[in-house]
Specification:
Shape: globular
CATH class: Alpha Beta
Radius of gyration: 18 Å
Structural class: alpha/beta
Distance between the termini: 42 Å
CATH topology: UDP-N-acetylmuramoyl-L-alanine:D-glutamate ligase
Length: 306
Amino acid sequence: MSMKILNFGSLNIDFVYDVVDFVTKGQTITSSGLNQYPGGKGLNQSIAAGKAGASISHAGLVGKDGVFLYDLLAEAGVDTTKMRTTEKERTGNAIIQRNQDGDNCIVLYSGANRTFTEEFVDEVLSKFDKGDWLLVQNETNLLGYIVEQAHRRGMKVAMNPSPADELLDQVDLSLIDCFILNGGEAEAITGKTGTPETLLDAMCEKFPGAATILTSGSWGSGYARGTQRVRQRAYRVPVVDTTAAGDTFTGYVLANLVAGEDIATSLDRASRAAAIAVSRQGAAPSIPSAGEVDIFQASPIISTEE
């Protein structure tokens, strides 16, 4: 029986404002454009995994304003029967400023994403078995409970610890089987700074039982577990919008690993998918299909951090 992935994650509506430069304290600026996109790390990662071909279910809550997200996930091949609509709260949303370089800064409102109950968690997890994978981020409540209960059921747990804030202190990170994170998140969790290789070593030292997959911009990505190390270069593409790069990478790399691909292949496919995503506008709409990843061609970046 093939392993399934359950993403217990956030569902957002993103409001993206195009600006010349990010607003600063006391300043009022006018945006040149406003676009509304589906978003949330959870949603983006589920769509990426679904498009990569994984058997993935999304569990999460939306308000009445977010019911259109069901169809969007279903179109990407994601099972939405574990999602619920709440009358009590609006869908989580993000206010995103996007500057002319394609960089962004984000203000999140959690909304329905932080109204999970233990009963809801238990009901969803009861549909999954030992050996199935749980994927989580840090944009919902009850994260510690979700991880603990999934681990108790014998599920394997992958975590993208973003945002890497004090709420992670409520989670037993020793229960995580695979961390998928960037350099800033690795620094926050380990208290160490340095090169990507240094951060991979620090993660292995702190979590000897876990695998770590680290992304670091133009350096690319790397895998570490015990003494094993696998490096993947990033691909050179014109950058339009970096919003969903990390989420695309996360969904793709986990989908490929769970499907039985080796580490090097999984990292390469995730890197290709992320490169395609940054060359397009928006979060969820920028995530490529597996077919697009298959035919993608670009040169690897020879990083200045070599």
